[in-house]
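Hey, can you fold this one?
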Amino acid sequence: MQLFFHENIQGNSFDLDADESKHLVKVLRKVKGDKVFFTNGKGFLFTCVIIDPNPKKCHLAIQERLFTPEDDFYIHLAICPTKNADRMEWLVEKITEIGVHEITLMQSTNSERGHLKLERLEKKIISACKQSLKTRVPKLNEVRPIRDLLQDKIFDTFERFIAYVDEENDQHLFKKAKPKNSYLVLIGPEGDFSPAELDLAFSNFFLPCSLGKSRLRTETAGLAAVHTLQLVNNE
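Sure. Predicted structure:
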């Protein structure tokens, strides 16, 4: 099955814009009567039929709607952007495929980069959803200072973890996380978190966790954290 994305699907039929129509009709050579599958990124899978294969305004009718319930757990990854933007694009693509629910870009003392183009990341996320046949698009948040995240009361009901490199921090996230919960995991920059940031995290009930014995790049650590929490909830 090939999955397509269209955010605003309402009623029993809808039109694609010029770019999407051209791709469907001219590039993929879809014709009248062909069946195609769409998602709006909010849990719905639509089985559609092409009514008018107009390359400027393709019109489709909805034959069937299927709704996928939300997971009984929630993974929120907060991560410091890497200096190389390509590495962050790779990360959001891969963790979307594996299964992340929310991503927050985070600014810390040792951050290498303070800004990323969210539009590019959002396109990577949608592309990864289509590739992995996911009907829910993860939420992407702009850069927030780490202190705001650490002190935000909205996370009081979450299991909160901060991953960093330390010989004494040797208990793996897999052993600490309990299944069927909401999680917030913080991943620092290549220079790691500052001592003051760690102290503030602990004072706000964040638990230290390890992601293994190896020293990981920021984007690798983010991928490992999301995959670990998926394993916790899908044993």
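The two ends are 27 Å apart (CA to CA). Let me know if you want another pass with a different chain boundary.
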